[in-house]
Specification:
about 425 residues; alpha/beta; TIM Barrel; 8-stranded parallel barrel; two-stranded antiparallel sheet; 13 helices; globular; binds phosphoenolpyruvate; binds cobalt (II) ion
């Protein structure tokens, strides 16, 4: 801990946390007004914490129970959250969706299910290209409503730092709505809606890191941050930041991840081999899920008690005949089955599923009677989400009976 600094705000901050801002970082926007971005960072630093350290520790303890095979996890929500959805009615619908899906998984898993929303902070999006051509005009890509707007105009695509403050306020409203529903702090841990998002936008996340009061640091913007597939470089800012935090953390891994990369990520993010600390979220795509088992075995050999969670969405995005970004339910369900088999055979813990899904009446993924078409039913801000009928079909696929952590269940449920 540093003793004091001229600005006062950093008095108990680990200098390593601020050092993160000087490390190489992928996927960061170029703000149109850098001085305003600095002022917004300072304003975020002065905001009260949205999440208390006790909550983060409670979630880690629950995830340790997932590692022990006592519980499993459903993590679901929008690909890109809209701050306009931070209303009591919209939040209640999202909580209800988590309940319905979690209830279905509970039957297949034969154990209680933790409900985790991709919400109260899931605003920033990594993109495969920094620019795109729209009707012959080159525009910066949409990076989530915390950075810019989706409309294909120069002014909408300008990266506006004030959006970070608006999104932080919206995240606070979502938390208040959860609390009003009895799903916030103080609720039964198995009834709570735990919050998670991709810790992508460093100008937002770093100012919201705070001392724990016991010598460590934690991220106050969410219970459970994850690192995306595009920002998991071992020497990069995102990995180094999450390595310093007391929150439980997760990291996506794609189909080209090597055994040595996984080993390195585990060493950085879970150096003390703490059950519940690290979750790896493969998103291989149904065609390549066969590559998962050797990675699970490698992590086992390295002695990290990681949780394996299946993201069957991000490896299965395709374009339909009209060029619309869709995902097929059939591929998603096939990946879930391939995941379960790979993790079980590799001797890992099948922790649960990570879905992009919405309780609204949408038609963005294909299957279960839905054919996605451009129009009012296709309104995601980024990737196509499952509607309730489709998400129910995926949740019903969650069958955890063969988890090595529960031999009694294995015998009953081969
Ligand atoms: C996401 O979860 O929305 C996402 C971008 O995932 P990934 O990093 O796995 O592509
Ligand atoms: Co997505």
């Amino acid at each position: 801990m540093t003793q004091s600094s001229p600005r006062g705000l950093h008095t108990t901050r680990d200098p390593e946390i601020d050092h993160v801002m000087r490390l190489p970082a992928e996927q960061q926007p170029k703000w149109h007004d850098p001085a305003r971005a600095a002022a917004v960072r300072a304003a975020l630093e002065a905001e009260p914490a949205q999440v208390a350290v006790g909550e983060v520790r409670e979630l880690t303890a629950l995830l340790a129970r997932v590692a022990a095979g006592e519980l499993c996890v459903l993590q679901a929500g929008d690909c890109a959250e809209d701050p306009a959805d931070a209303t009591p009615a919209a939040v209640a619908l999202k909580a209800e969706m988590l309940d319905v899906l979690g209830g279905i998984m509970r039957v297949g898993a034969d154990r209680p299910v933790l409900r985790v929303g991709r919400l109260a902070g899931q605003f920033a999006k990594p993109r495969s290209q920094p620019y795109e051509a729209v009707d012959g005009v080159r525009l910066p890509v949409f990076r989530g409503l915390i950075v810019n707007g989706p409309e294909a105009t120069r002014s909408a695509r300008r990266a506006d730092p004030d959006r970070m403050l608006a999104c932080h306020t919206a995240a606070g409203r979502t938390r208040s709505a959860l609390e009003e529903l009895g799903r916030g702090p103080g609720a039964d841990p198995l009834k709570r809606v735990w919050t998670s998002h991709e810790a992508l936008l460093l100008d937002y996340e770093v100012p919201l890191v705070r001392p724990t009061g016991t010598g460590g640091h934690y991220l106050t913007s969410t219970h459970w941050p994850w690192i995306g597939e595009r920002t998991r470089q071992p020497a990069g800012a995102h990995v180094r930041l999450l390595a310093r935090l007391e929150n439980p953390v997760a990291c996506k891994v794609g189909p080209d991840t090597t055994a040595s990369q996984v080993r390195e990520l585990c060493a950085l993010l879970d150096p003390h081999r703490v059950p519940g600390r690290l979750t790896l979220i493969p998103r291989f795509g149904t065609a390549r899920i066969g590559r998962l088992q050797p990675l699970v075995e490698e992590v086992g050999r390295a002695g990290h008690p990681v949780l394996w969670m299946c993201d069957p969405m991000h490896g299965n995005t395709v374009k339909d005949a009209c060029g619309l970004k869709i995902r097929r339910l059939e591929d998603i369900m096939t990946e879930v089955r391939g995941f379960l088999s790979a993790v079980r055979r590799g001797g890992g813990v099948c922790a649960g599923v990570h879905l992009e899904a919405s309780p609204q009446n949408i038609a963005e993924c294909a299957g279960a009677g839905t054919v996605p078409v451009r129009g009012p039913g296709y309104r995601t801000l980024c990737d196509p989400r499952l509607n309730m009928r489709q998400a129910v079909a995926v949740a019903a696929h969650w069958q955890q009976g063969l988890s090595p952590a529960r031999p009694a269940v294995r015998a009953a449920n081969p």
